[in-house]
Amino acid sequence: MKANVHVTLKRGVLDPQGKAIGHALQSLGFDGVDDVRQGKFIELELAETDQDAARAAVEAMCQKLLANTVIEDYRIDFVG
Amino acid sequence: MKAAVIVFPGSNCDRDVSVALEHATGHKPAMVWHRDSDLPQVDLIVVPGGFSYGDYLRSGAMAAQSPVMREVVARAKSGTRVLGICNGFQILTEAKLLPGALMRNAGLKFLCRTVDLRVENADSAFTAGYAKDQLIRLPVAHHDGNYFADADTLARIEDNGMVAFRYVTPDGAIDASGNPNGSANAVAGLFNEGRTVLGLMPHPERAAEPLHGNTDGKPLLDGLVEALS
Known about the structure:
The complex is a heterodimer of chains A (80) and B (229). Chain A has 80 residues and is of the alpha+beta class. Chain A is built from two helices and three strands. Chain A has a three-stranded antiparallel sheet with strand order 2-1-3, with helices on one face. Chain B has 229 residues and is an alpha/beta fold. Chain B has helices spanning 14-25, 61-64, 67-77, 87-94, 151-159, 218-228, and strands at residues 3-7, 30-33, 44-47, 81-85, 101-103, 111-119, 135-142, 146-148, 163-167, 187-191, 197-200. The longest helix of chain B has 12 residues, at 14-25. The chains are: A alpha+beta (80), B alpha/beta (229).
């Protein structure tokens, strides 16, 4: 089973890299981008076949290492 | 005072701080490799600066999970003094020994220069060599030094006198021009609640000898030796 983990800065935490990307897009002529938030994308190949058990395991991975929950939120999606 | 310096792959201030400790105490500190879980009995554990594990994932995130850090956390909880400098500060926040997090500098650039600081709390083993409100200058060299904590945590930090050093202007004022990386409340150095753990972004070990051109970091080391010997 494959899990995709998206880690982004929490709403309300200033994302200077996202802001710089937004400015760069604007200077390239891409108008209408109101906000940019950048983050990390992590793919996990899991031996576990039960989705509930896999979700619990990936939750624990996010809490312990993959995200710093002081500043980051995470989202877990299962594919395949 | 017996000291140990933790060495991770990618640490690069371990030997600088070892020399500074040797000059302050008269003997070499123990250098402890990150895979070792047996840490000698010491009065002070230093988590040095550098780029442990190449700053993969987040600065300090991998090092915080290393075997030796489990022991460092246990020792810190039993009262052993722990000093984290630069990457060491990042590691201590990732290991939850200190609240908050260190994010990318607000200006996005790596900062390498000397900054002005104000000693906010001289009532600790780490800062006893300074006077409260003393202005000092120390070098910084970091990309992720932008201290962040939520409003409740910042209130708790301030209420408990946990700010050790703040970034200031040369005349001691707290404003945006004196804050090099956008840190919340201009936090440059932070204690835990018991003031037995200190993390700071500036490098006292790089300002500890006349040859460095600046000795403002020396009172931090000398104060520790006096308090812990």
